[in-house]
């Protein structure tokens, strides 16, 4: 399965995918990495593993559509079959989503539908979790559709919030779960064990 990974930051999720592919844990490979940030460390990780990588900047295009077309062109040129948003901080329009209908997944650092949607990204999620005082948070891998952070959920895993947790310590705990969950979701998709039934996702175990 050829993966196209979109990144904006550190790339620890990208690294988890690269490692799992190289260890042959999943029958997939990262065909291309695209970042919207020139200095995203994720790009260094791609370079280190000889993965084609591009910086595509919204400001270099006259419209969101042209910006998305540029990314779609690169993904298609690399024969990407599954697009993975791994810490990607740009909203994608229905044009992009239509080009890869039900073939885009995202990792979000909370138990959707809690603490998600516009404004809830990166550390802001964990700050809101601590602020609210919930006892359980977690990570979610979901399909990307037109609604932000609201596509059909593939996998979720809880992370218990300790009363001494800070957003930083919580982020660390959630991050470890994200890495595991994202790799597991890609593995299931590479084995065609994921079926979308309306809003719900059925995982076909065994087989
Ligand atoms: C993380 O907060 C992750 O939860 C979210 O994007 C952020 C950056 O992840 N999806 P990464 O280290 O760049 O993969």
From TrEMBL:
N(1)-(5-phospho-beta-D-ribosyl)glycinamide binds at residues 11-13. GO terms for biological process: 'de novo' IMP biosynthetic process. One of its GO terms (cellular component) is cytosol. (6R)-10-formyltetrahydrofolate binds at residues 89-92, 106. The active site is at residue 108. PANTHER family: PHOSPHORIBOSYLGLYCINAMIDE FORMYLTRANSFERASE. This is Phosphoribosylglycinamide formyltransferase. It comes from Pseudothermotoga thermarum DSM 5069. The lineage of its organism: Bacteria, Thermotogati, Thermotogota, Thermotogae, Thermotogales.
